[in-house]
Design brief:
The protein has 68 residues and is an all-alpha fold. Helix content is 76%, strand content 0%. α2 packs across α3. The chain is rod-shaped and about 60 Å long. The protein starts with a helix and ends with a helix.
């Protein structure tokens, strides 16, 4: 491997590290959903209505956040 190849690999690795930065908006979204879920005593349909999302999307969030 020559120096140019090493430079390219270094840039690729740096890009990969940048792409794994935590996204604060995802944490905010999660908190909003969890707070609404708690306010509605674990009622998925009521939580979905409050948030203006479908019950299917609420089911996906429950699965993603481990709310069973």
């Amino acid at each position: 491997m020559d120096d140019d190849d090493k430079k390219i690999l270094k840039k690729i690795k740096a890009k990969k590290k940048e792409s794994f930065k935590p996204n604060p908006w995802l944490e905010i979204k999660k908190k909003i959903i969890l707070d609404a879920y708690i306010r509605n005593d674990g009622n998925s349909a009521a939580t979905a209505r409050e948030l203006g999302i479908s019950r299917v999307q609420m089911w996906r969030y429950k699965k993603e956040y481990g709310l069973n």
